[in-house]
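Anyone else keep sequences and structure tokens together like this?

Example one:
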Amino acid sequence: MDLKLAIREEALRLGFDAVGFAPAEVSDEARRHLGEFLAAGQYGDMGWMAAHADRRGDPKTLWPDARSVVVVAMSYAPAENPLARSLPADRGAISVYAQTTRDYHDVLKNRLKQLARWTHERHGTGVKVFVDTAPVLEKPLAARSGVGWQGKHTNLVSRDLGNWFFLGEMFVDADLAPDPAVADHCGSCRNCLDACPTAAFTAPYKLDARRCISYLTIEHKGHIPAELRSLMGGRIYGCDDCLAVCPWNKFAQAPAEPGLWPRAELTAPKLRELAALDDAAFRTVFAGSPIKRTGRDRFVRNVCIAIGNSGYRSLAPVAAGLTTDASPLVRAAAVWALGRLAAADARRLAAVRILLETDSDVRSEWLEVAKIEPVSGGGA
């Protein structure tokens, strides 16, 4: 059997929802877009993007023998549009991809390794597999392979899968005929651009990661910029808004892989309970989840921002308790949240905490709290 056809059939048998083939090279346009993104500093804390820019621009720097790339996709589409659900304000919103019962890295890598082993043993070809963690420009490669096209939100879109799917790559040391690229079918639609809560898209197909809620809640290591906090709402890990509004999701397929089914406890977790997690409890709760990689302090920082946006006065004591947390990252966010929910209480505390606080950033938050006026009303 033709090697390309054999690989495609085996990949589909293993449970991948789409398979495409591309040469092991990145287009000049993709390299140019990467260079512009890096030159503008829009990658924020993701220094690894700049550090390995040369490797991203040429797949053969990862493996000189690579001749072709097999791109696979696996759906993780939710049962319903997450924007159609009305979460209580005392609950946190976690991105659909991170609600899964198993970390998608493990799910895809396990299947890709099976495909690689089969390809090598049956056909004698050399292979290497990658899932998200290596410096691979996977979206341009996937677009070149015909799996989909990069939409205006910069994510891949498929006419068969919508945009709820993960990507993985298998590099092969054999020349496999590339599949034709798919034309861009976004047309005049700008749903994704208009849906972004923080206006992170500077233009169609261009994202400033520094304003993206997914970046801020997952990759950003420091304090959330003050001007963006109120725009985050209850999003505590990632953001699905630009994905959820894509019209092509009408063709999305429910995941067949049980590891990509949602964990009930992550679909609408209580902010009060998440705020109480210490490091050990955080690791236990999020074992086997991509959330674990963010770490407890960054995650609870996000929870504090969501508490401040909740409007629930009953959560003010939770925020107050975290103003003495060991992590300055958490303390600063907790001070902001307390000021939002109980300004008078926060101002009284500020008079003392400004003098005792040893971290300059947290002290600055107390100084800001000391200036604000009480907010009337609030939730139960």
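And example two:
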Amino acid sequence: MNPIRFRHPIWVGTFLLFILSISIQAQEYKELTLDDSLQIAEKNNLSIRSAEQKLIGAKTQVDLARSALFPRISANGNYTYFKDIQKSVIQAEGGFGFPTPGQEMGQMSTSDPDNEAELIELEFGAHHNIQGTVNLTQPLFAWGRIYNNYKAARIGYTAGEEELTAAYDNLRLTVYEAFYGVLIAQEFVEVAKQSVELVELQFAQTESSFSVGRTTQFEVLRAKVQLANVKSQLIQARNRVKTAKDSFKTILNIPLKEDISVNGSFQIQQTEKKLDELISIAMTQRPEVKQSNLNEQIGQKQLTVAKTQNLPDLAFFSNYQISHSERLTEMNRIWSLGLQINVPIFDGFASRAGVKKSESTLKQMELSSKQIKSSVEFEVRSSYLALLEAKTLIDVQKETVAQAEASISIANLQFQSGIITAVELMDAQLALLQARVNRLMAQHDYVIGFARLEKAIGQRIQ
């Protein structure tokens, strides 16, 4: 069997799968809805990834603070080799203050210093020595320092969760603004196309009327200038779509070379909540407000810890030690336990400085919390008023569009009767297009204003 021939279908299949995967990847971002955009942004946005990593760091701080509540156990061992051992010389009999055999107590024998037979050389120690120790230390009482540090770390983790929630809320608003920015830019292109088609038609009619003497050269020139203007507006509208899409893809962390479009509409949502109710919701639901309150609690815990730094603490300890050498018949074992108290006497006024620093930090957190609440209230008020303004403009633009449409009907009848010129009819038609553009802008501003109000209060408005 030819192995090359056998593998040929596999190569073809692999190549086709590769081409298919590229095709699927290229079409993945072809047309995006608002929900699709939010999911992609939450998955790919770098600011969210950074906030998640900060939350992981806060979790490790909790683990570190919790570890101080548990006992500390350590073990160490060593092996020592002595090439030379310390030696000493003593007398064979009576050298230690004891009588020689046959003598009474108190009768000491007199040794002859020149008699080397009466001297004994002893070695103290061993060549090979092994030693191992296991130590255990458990804090018993430290005026709540360890527990308060742990509680502060737990509160810090909760504050990190609120920071991540705030990052998601900010990203949601950013996606809303970018998504509807692309959507309205695409709508403007369609309006610009309609304007070009309309002016081209009117320009052709004006030239036809001029050829039969029903209009003047001035109206022809005016129509020609108007056609050039609307074509320029179409070019600008298309460029704005490209810019809006690039900004949108940057937020979603999509490669700029991807060709995308958005699919959506300007849905007008209503809310019956009053301003005071919205402010009250923001003060309880806004992640930044929650985070500032939690930071105050952390500052209070840190101040409590700082005030106990110069107080004594109590701990339990236990040690187990083994040792062995070639001179021992069995291993030595020593076990001990006890209580240890540490009493700070003088630390160079470090504890006093630490208390002052913690008090200052807590005061900064309190001031920052007040500033955040004031900023949140201002944001809710401004978002609410902007939403009311956009709602009023939508109502006004509805009437304006209706009036412009009625004007077109009248202008068409007048043009057919020869009462007005083609240029005047074109002005009426362009006025209708402008009214529709203004209504579209009002709808866009309302949708974005509604999203900003939701972000300002920290929750979705049902």
